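Researcher: Next entry in the queue.
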Amino acid sequence: PNPFNPSTIIRYQLPKTGNVTLKVFDVLGREVVTLVDEYRNAGSYEIEFKSSVGSLQLASGIYYYQLKAGNFTQTKKMMLMK
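Model: Structure for this entry, 82 residues:
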């Protein structure tokens, strides 16, 4: 759900097997975390994104997550509200 606090679930589907990356960026385009970077089979997946990354607590605001699978790239916005 959007907005989220302290975590949200990102769901995605892969029509075919291949390399997948799922990264989160801040509004300035800096990479916050890589959630997925591996070879995955076709199917449905979900991954939890938490507002704390290691010892770093993310600030309230807008973040973007980007899914890349083969030639497909999709970027979506999410909002962290504390």
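Model: The chain has no helices and eight strands.
Researcher: Noted, moving on.
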